[in-house]
């Protein structure tokens, strides 16, 4: 280890030549060390900056490693829905990109409301869009808007199911067959 001692010497006019000669060496050593330290500091700062530019901090996203490719709305293929979500992309279709814009569905209007809050013409179109059906009606789903009283007044609907009251049957989108428990 190099030990540098800095000695402050007070010189008077009579000793100026002697003082100047004795302080030259420690002063040069000190300046040389300071310059080297500044150069090393500069190199270190440049290295830190360069490495931060090349390797930006990775965002952590705990996704399973299973492979079910999806195409994101950004046009990139992701290994699964979770990875697409972590990248900030919405799933456009459940396969490798590009997605086919044509969906081979029948032109039957039987509306379904999906968990994304959108109404699709039928279940096939919802499936092609890669979304799950919440209810078989237009959005919002009846369960989302119904606030039925808890009065037991059973009704039987055409689907053969007994509902708690007319309001709950209506909210389920079912027509009442008779006003009593099934069977009618």
From TrEMBL:
Q: Does the keyword Membrane apply?
A: yes
Show the stretches that span the lipid bilayer.
24-49
Domain annotation Kazal-like: ranges: 55-86, 87-143, 144-184
The source's superkingdom equals: Eukaryota
Quote the SUPFAM superfamilies the UniProt record gives. Answer: Kazal-type serine protease inhibitors
Read off the InterPro entries from this record: Kazal_dom (IPR002350), Kazal_dom_sf (IPR036058), Serpin (IPR053265)
Keyword annotations for this protein, in alphabetical order, are:
Membrane, Transmembrane, Transmembrane helix
The reply on keyword Transmembrane is: yes
Entry's PANTHER family?
A: GEO10195P1-RELATED (PTHR21131:SF0), SERINE-TYPE ENDOPEPTIDASE INHIBITOR (PTHR21131)
Q: What is this protein called?
A: Kazal-like domain-containing protein
Q: Which organism is it from?
A: Mytilus coruscus (Sea mussel)
């Amino acid at each position: 280890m190099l030990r540098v001692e800095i000695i402050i010497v007070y010189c008077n006019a009579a000793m100026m030549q002697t003082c100047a000669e004795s302080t030259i060496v420690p002063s040069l050593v000190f300046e040389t060390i300071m310059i080297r330290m500044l150069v090393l500091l500069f190199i270190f700062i440049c290295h830190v900056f360069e490495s931060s530019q090349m390797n930006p901090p990775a965002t952590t996203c705990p996704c399973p490693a299973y492979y079910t490719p999806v195409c994101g709305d950004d046009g990139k293929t992701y290994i699964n829905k979770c990875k697409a979500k972590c990248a900030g992309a919405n799933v456009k279709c459940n396969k490798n990109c590009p997605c086919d814009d044509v969906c081979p569905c029948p032109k039957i209007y039987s509306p379904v409301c999906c968990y994304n809050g959108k109404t699709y013409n039928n279940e096939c179109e919802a499936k092609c869009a890669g979304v799950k059906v919440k209810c078989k009606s237009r959005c919002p789903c009846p369960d989302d808007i119904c606030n039925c009283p808890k009065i037991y007044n059973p009704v039987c609907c055409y689907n053969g199911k007994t509902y708690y009251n007319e309001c709950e049957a209506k909210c389920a989108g079912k027509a009442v067959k008779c006003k009593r428990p099934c069977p009618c």
